[in-house]
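User: Hi! Is it possible to get a structure for several chains at once, not just one? Here's what I have:
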Amino acid sequence: MKSKNYHMTPAQFREEGKKIIDWIADYYENIEEYPVLSQVKPGEIKDSLPISAPQKSESIDEMIRDLNEKIMPGITHWQSPNFFAYFNSNTSFPSILGDLVSSGLGVQGMIWATSPAATEVETRVLDWLAEMMDMPESFKSTSTGGGVIQDTASTAALTALIAARERATKFQSNNKGLEEKLVAYISTQTHSSVEKGVKIAGIGKDNLRLIDVDENFAMRPDLLEKQIQKDKKDGLHPFFVCGTVGTTSSTAIDPIKAIGEICKQENCWYHIDAASFGTAMICPEFRHFINGVELADSYSFNPHKWMFTNFDCNVFWVANRDELINTFSILPEYLRNKATETGEVFDYRDWHIQLGRRFRSLKLWFVIRHYGVEGLRHHIREHIKLAQDFKNWVAESKDFEVVVEPLLNLISFRHIAGDDFNIRLMNTINETGKIYFTHTKLNGQVVLRMNIGQTHIEEKHVKVAWNIIQETAKKLV
Amino acid sequence: MKSKNYHMTPAQFREEGKKIIDWIADYYENIEEYPVLSQVKPGEIKDSLPISAPQKSESIDEMIRDLNEKIMPGITHWQSPNFFAYFNSNTSFPSILGDLVSSGLGVQGMIWATSPAATEVETRVLDWLAEMMDMPESFKSTSTGGGVIQDTASTAALTALIAARERATKFQSNNKGLEEKLVAYISTQTHSSVEKGVKIAGIGKDNLRLIDVDENFAMRPDLLEKQIQKDKKDGLHPFFVCGTVGTTSSTAIDPIKAIGEICKQENCWYHIDAASFGTAMICPEFRHFINGVELADSYSFNPHKWMFTNFDCNVFWVANRDELINTFSILPEYLRNKATETGEVFDYRDWHIQLGRRFRSLKLWFVIRHYGVEGLRHHIREHIKLAQDFKNWVAESKDFEVVVEPLLNLISFRHIAGDDFNIRLMNTINETGKIYFTHTKLNGQVVLRMNIGQTHIEEKHVKVAWNIIQETAKKLV
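Assistant: Yes, the chains can be modeled jointly so their relative placement is included. Here is the combined structure:
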């Protein structure tokens, strides 16, 4: 007698899967009808769900019903063309399909042998990307370096910090713990993830120096140099510098080459975080922003921000993969295998913190092939053009001012009526659900941010957004 | 004039998406026709792909063709019912659908406000799971603790280590770096990820003690106690102990309660890693394996191993969420928002290393609702029964021996002809592609491992596997 089987059959999956595909297509067709920023109160979603798990099987139809009725009110619509908050985290239909294939295959590519394709597609696609951005040869797998997919830029920065820590201690800190005071350097505008990484790596925030910035909010290399000399004089050990291509608050681009030269001279690991702006480097006219990248030890950006690839997908390159592998490699008996022992393969679990890994390069592969380099460049240029339009409208307005000239697709601006007014303006607009944007502070003042990078954004969305901001400001004044 | 647009439309997505759904259904219908372990040589997949990214757009049909022709030969089929290697990383159709919804929505739930549902579904579903496993109240969000989804058990262990480091240094190590010698304790059988975590956290491997095990490969609490006393006498600071429920090599279960009592007495953070076996705790008859869990500070397991949920999905609970949040919280201006300031919401980015996060609880929600608690228990029990059958066949054979009595679904066994023979036997079988299993070492001797946890495994698969192993051994002797 065959026992009861609770699994969904392939035939049922065909049927239910197509319902979900249609549900997603419907969602994108109607996405502008939802309030961009979820309007629910804390606890509202949780309280709508049963306190205990169901004992008996429920149907996919019931789940779809609950998605529509209970979950959707709690969604902030990151894929809406009216989403201008933070840095976007855009996706695209080809990326969703690539990720679906990955879920379907369900391989765990921790080492080469556990699915050679999961490793080799990743290696090849990251070499493609390196070439698309005219990266130095050393960052390619065919040379001394190579790329690997990490979950986020936070993790990439932490990974760089740990490898840097190992190099600085002559590969002793993994074994002995930290026995000297290492010092890391960022600017006052660097993303908070580096501070978090410095804490996790046992360096300590007190040993992180925040170098002041120039009038464009870019790190001042003269002050970096001065601080490093001071720290050396105090018996400390400078070991790591992070440069940023596109800071979160103002899209500042640190002087990549000047910092790199200091790093070389002072023997510091040089990590470049291009989380959001990195995508633009595929356009030759913007590539000059990372001139000097050949001086870097590691470089990362997030295709899951602006390159139509769904979260999570950070790409991280190193110029010298041996240092990275020596830092993260552990080979217990249960993972020994013939391919690893030949030394002919990459085992990517030695390139990062986690052991297990998903086949994430498939979505990148789908995205790059669907758009072609040409299509990717086209849309990035469009977004930058729309951002420049928006900036011009702000510049022409008598009530608003541009705070920083936008280099790419983020506009930092504010109403002239002061901090409280700007926050009130932003909250009032966000509560309408028509558009969603966020704020930061620069030089102690509130600044509004409009990030233009949504997959399906068109000129009309930017125009409507600017109208809403102007009209609301007039009413509130 | 409307400019060229390279995006896929919702209508095209409906069509292409359904092709991919069918492709996945076809795959599962034919999965047993593929060699389980990929038979390609290093470089073969990479060399089959173009050296450069395409300039022009390619079609989804071309990608599907390449999937079939170029990628599939490089896949090791983790979802095959003939996969018995490592710990399985099973998935199920409902999980694939839940993950597809997550990809489709494309929300980035770093903080509550960026999609309240992404936070609150996670909180609720992890409370469900805690209840399903009869976890102590303190681990629930309604009490002092709560659960969060991490990518892997490696990251969960690292997260616990960092929080433990902070507690042990009175929340000073994040700021000052490590200024004293902290010591962590695991057994000789604990997973290598804890060693990796100890390195990353700046503790140093030299400050990690490997406590010896008893005849069942479980940690000896008397030796743990002795080592802690010795380290204290030497002026060191014991701060962290990891107990394992189901070690990788032999499925040993450490004495959870006895270790917990030592941790309480010595004021050590007690982390329990139940990565693979944790799923079985939803069956009341196996729950006794974690008696004493109420003494733990943190507990984690991987629904992406044995609970039909696709990678990555680790669940991690703490008894005191304030300690965790105090360890990982950073609040830059650009993430400030009203909901966070009320203190009424969880911002999960403060519960882990990364900032960004995917809506991963959807797949767990789909899985638990599709199977119901009843269905999940049914299949776990089936797997354990099949493992016991296999063990009995081994025990009855005159050529093979059971190395460790299997407590749950992993059988450790070997042929009596010695180490070299066992490795040769395993490699010979794996190269046929009929089944795939792996080895480890226990007490210095090679041991073969059969892990029985594939979603679609049936009795016939286990019988065939045992026949193949026996027949091949006869031929090779």
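The CA atoms of residues 44 and 74 of chain B lie 8 Å apart. Chain B has 16 helices and eleven strands.

User: Great, thank you!
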